[in-house]
């Protein structure tokens, strides 16, 4: 017996089943006569249907589809868009009269826009609450609902593009914009959690004698591998990777090399070890994720390099490695200061960097450096 999920997926792909599955619809038909999944499979739009009645039918179906349900399985993960897309597709299919057909498309997609707005409002509230309470609920915090929202937005967005030429461009554009905004909000909320989680683990890490960063363990708990969520997980892990690598470097540079001796007698290799562990963690959570630990892996070489020309080459290579994560480049002046170079030596190294499409001009480097020197000196003042 095929599962309702399988039949659903077949229905989306236009594949006929044997008809003997006896499956239960994801959305039941109500006493009000509004069709559920059975309508998706069998009902063809009536050319003479009153648009007001059609509007009410579509609205009621989408309202019921939006009822929040926990995401505990692959079926739950895809449930919303697997319900909605075939329903709208069925209502806009098979009309012969072009004028009536265009009217049906307009009615359905106006209701779909309102559905998307309600979905956005609902998910923003729910995900914001999860993001705000993650620390209190850190033992039970899950990321699956964030991933599910991203998946639903993507699938609806791809479907809506198929209506190009059948609905007003402004309607299509507004619907897509709402979904893209929801995707951006979802990623931001989850990345805020990652940033705070990273901060909580790193704030005292370099002042301790810890040899293992517990953040790596927590990431594995919050992002368990789910094959059906692989694409969305890879997207958020890539963003998280950049946040964690930068935060690690920032916290490292806030501690003098003298103070770091408690954490490790040999800072360079210790940082390299953490950089490799970070990538192993992210690769395990999202196979094929791009490496974002290049600047951390180069710290050992920076610390060991005593020749100015050699240091210029090392920093130039670091800059080249960071072309796809340019935000980390503004930490290079502070890294050189942390190594122990004088202001003149730092400027000499930075001036040797080529000006190209990825890097900032020398004047910008120097302005950033003078700012970071002031900040660094303030951080190193003893607290009385």
Automatic annotation (TrEMBL):
Region annotation Disordered: where it falls in the sequence: 21-51
Protein name per Swiss-Prot or TrEMBL: Exocyst complex component Sec6
Source species, domain of life: Eukaryota
Source organism of this protein record: Oryzias melastigma (Marine medaka)
